[in-house]
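Sample entry (127 residues):
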Amino acid sequence: METTVEKQGKTVAIFNLMLSGSGFENVNVLIEKGKSIRITGRRVYDKFNKTLKVWEEGQVDNIDITFSLGDVAIYGSYNFSYTNPIKSIAEKRIAFAGKSLTVAQFVNYNWNYSAAKVRDEKMNWYD
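Predicted structure, serialized as tokens:
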């Protein structure tokens, strides 16, 4: 499927966003410029059936998460996730203090965002 974009006033809808990770299906993004970004779709983790020697659908994560201006989100990672408040939401880029991401990069980092998960990740890193 091809990625399509529809614009109406300050709202931009991106359908079938192509992401670098595998298993993403029907990922759609609704951007209200200067206000919010909503990510919907699903991620399927395929598993290999050794008996039948075929790939089968495994765990499915449904995606439905919304970020507003000022919300904390992930903007990068190395040993753990780097987070900051969102400073700007535009049609093609999401900006943080000193860093901006394309919409696809933002979705890749934040499709399953959990503040508790990020906190635990950092606490385990510092131990």
